[in-house]
């Protein structure tokens, strides 16, 4: 039975609380992000003031229960925050994805009481920034081929390795990283660790030359003989792969929800421009080729939104949603890249200039097709599930 057919189906109407969250985040984006975003992007500047503002508004702990310093909001509200923030810039939504989706929500699920007190509470309050280090120079989609190691030495572990393409590595206080505790055991040999920037042996470096998210942060983490107590291991030894996959179910949701913001930003810019720009004596919006692109954006937004709401509904119910979240992430990020591409096309040569927002949207919309599962990985997951080769929801 499809989730939409089961009892207590999805309610598409927002509650007063959800509307309030959406409106206050939209105001934040209009006030704090949009006025200066072109300048920040062009100068490759991460504005820590915007991060602090997001923290003050409680965004960095939105779905974390109040007892751990969060807002206790539901997943529809979390999705609305991601959408409104990405309408401003994808770089700031990326912070929500790594800090909240990949790190804090995973800590909430797998953390001990002490780990939650020490790491989750300051993260949910926005006092500390957290990131997620899974990818390595030789291991992206193929997580089990990672080379970082965590050697047990009494009641401690010694970590060595390199993490690559880690969003917010350069400014994070806390790191959730994965390393092999048993090299021979494949994906069952991976364990997860909570690290502090202050630990000796940790270094980070920003990746400067990249296609997009210039107003955000992407970097590398170098681990050389980093010693951590066993109390910093998240979950059991060998549970790292399972923990990483749980984290991705959360992170992918925030990526999918954020993509809605890019589609809206692209659509708003395209509609405005199509009504202003005239060729051959009439606004370009009157031409069917241009209308085709606007219609595709509308379709992309509405279908993506339904998939995001379906995933949010399952998350609110606390049931496994790997299949639905993967579908939402794949579809919404493809639609958002297409929307940005078409918005740029509608702007003609002006779309190629930083004078208009669409070239930034276009560059920023490319990375989500790569991270948290490439488009090909999501297609493979969906096909293998449909073919009966694997069961995504367990
Ligand atoms: C801006 C940005 C931010 C990022 N942030 C983070 C972060 O915060 N934390 C983190 O851990 N990682 C992060 N990543 C890394 C990202 O998750 C990886 O790049 C991604 O998992 C893909 O891995 P890869 O780049 O090694 O590509 P590969 O896995 O080497 O894939 C290369 C190509 O082969 C295809 N391919 C691979 N395997 C298969 C298969 N089985 N079937 C079909 N096709 C296949 C892929 O789809 C892709 O087209 C970030 C990446 C970017 C660009």
Describe this structure in words.
It is a single chain. With 394 residues, the chain is of the alpha+beta class. The chain folds into three domains: 3-129, Orthogonal Bundle (Butyryl-Coa Dehydrogenase, subunit A, domain 1), CATH 1.10.540; 131-241, Butyryl-CoA Dehydrogenase, subunit A, domain 2, CATH 2.40.110; 247-387, Up-down Bundle (Butyryl-CoA Dehydrogenase, subunit A, domain 3), CATH 1.20.140.10. It is built from eleven helices and ten strands. The protein has helices spanning 16-33, 37-42, 48-56, 75-88, 90-110, 113-124, 240-276, 288-317, 322-346, 358-364, 375-387, and strands spanning 130-133, 149-153, 156-167, 174-180, 190-196, 202-206, 218-229, 233-234, 278-279, 282-283. It has a four-stranded mixed sheet. Strand 2 and strand 3 (156-167) form a beta hairpin. Helix 4 runs antiparallel to helix 5 (90-110) and helix 7 runs parallel beside helix 9 (322-346). The chain is globular and about 80 Å long. 50% of the residues are buried. The structure holds flavin-adenine dinucleotide (FAD).
Rg over CA atoms: 21 Å
Bound molecules: flavin-adenine dinucleotide
Instruction: Tell me the number of structural domains.
Output: 3
Write down the overall mean pLDDT.
97
Distance between the termini: 16 Å
How many beta strands in the DSSP annotation?
10
Low-confidence stretches: 1-6
Indicate the percent of residues in helices: 40-55%
- As laid out across the biggest beta sheet, the strand order is 1-4-5-8
**Main sheet: strands, sense, barrel:** 4 strands, mixed
CATH class of the largest domain: Mainly Alpha
Seen as an oligomer or otherwise, the chain set is single chain
- Count of DSSP H/I helices: 11
Topology as H/E string? HHHHHHEEEEEEEEHEEHHHH
